[in-house]
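Researcher: Quick test of sequence recovery. Tokens follow.
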């Protein structure tokens, strides 16, 4: 998976882009300061948009 949910020391969550080694962005929003539920949901969304899945590789998505 290209995008993973990572818990920050503050207890909030970030969706991390393993390709760029930076927080992911979606629709102009940096995906930091999230709840666990938001992080899991948004991780699935950005992985889906990037063409990533558990059984297939990741394609490049120009907006991500």
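Model:
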């Amino acid at each position: 998976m290209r995008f993973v949910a990572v818990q920050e020391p503050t207890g909030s969550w970030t969706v991390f882009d393993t390709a760029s080694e930076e927080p992911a962005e979606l629709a102009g929003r940096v995906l930091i300061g999230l709840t666990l539920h938001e992080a899991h949901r948004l991780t699935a969304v950005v992985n889906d948009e990037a063409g990533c899945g558990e059984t297939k590789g990741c394609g490049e998505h120009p907006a991500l």
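Helices lie at 36-49.
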